[in-house]
Request: fold
Amino acid sequence: MKILVTGGCGFIGSHTVCELLDNDYEVVIIDNLSNSKIEVIDKIKRITNKEVYFYEGNVQDKDLLQRIFKENTIDGVIHFAGLKAVGESVKVPLMYYCNNIDSTLTLLEVMSECNCKNIVFSSSATVYGVQDTPKYVETMDRGKSSSPYGETKAIIEKILEDLYTSDPTFKITILRYFNPVGAHKSGLIGENPNGIPNNLMPYILKVAVHELPELTIFGNDYDTPDGTCIRDYIHVVDLAKGHIKALEHAHNHEPNIYTYNLGSGHGVSVGEMVTAFEKANNLKLNYKYGARREGDLPEYYADPSKALRELGWKTEESLEDMCKDSYHFITMEKGE
Ligand code: WQD
Reply:
């Protein structure tokens, strides 16, 4: 089977491409390299010893998409491509709504035209917004996300629901990621965003390799055991494997729309992550406590039982693996 992976050079996309190739899928990538590097293609080939088809361009480019579907028999699509910086989305919401939603609408139009009716969508736990309980389950209604980025994910989920209602021959799988961290065991691919990272682990990594002087922990006065926010961190390789399970599930089941949490089911605080990172890599991190970050929720984590029950998927990598693999990648990147 041949799978089109939009955003396949990105952090989660590249790890998923490796898992697809290791599971004998053929892979076509479309990526505009706005938040990734062309070198990732070669690294994917080094990791898997497999070839991958690559088209540079935007998913909004209908002509390019139609060419891809004409030149390849696409059996399914995994749709990662999109802008994902929460803070940036608050500053330039129109760019986020236009990019993330236009690209998805174009993709779905071309898929329908080409009778390709199998899509796995990269969504986010942020669509839950604020709930009465920190343990999020798929039966909950979507809430108000804390950013335009999160709202684009919620809107796209609604678009997919309406598409299925209009055309029940579609197989649609929505995967709600919690907090992806870690890197491939080879150290060849991982997350190393340009500029000052917004997310915790990339920031920790820049401090660990002395590219940034100090981590600021945003708030230690929350109603949690150590006063810092609690999140559900998931190793990116576990996340990638969840996509393979989603494709297999869709292949073996009737058309429908399926939604799954991809998380560990365990909450880890910022303080615990810092301590785990120091212990796993035998180093000390410079950090201080600062003010709370606007929009942060004190605590949320996944109820991952539906993914285990229906996909046969659960996380296998530990917090120590996440910390070790992330650090291994960043030191390889820096040539240390
Ligand atoms: C985690 C915790 C921060 C940086 C976001 C998106 C979500 C998903 C994952 C895409 C929080 C604290 C962080 C720092 C800190 N992305 N922190 N100092 O906000 O849980 O989720 O990324 O789908 O949609 O919302 O992740 O890594 O930014 O923050 O103390 O320098 O680390 O306050 O408590 P978040 P994060």
In short: The chain has a mean pLDDT of 97.
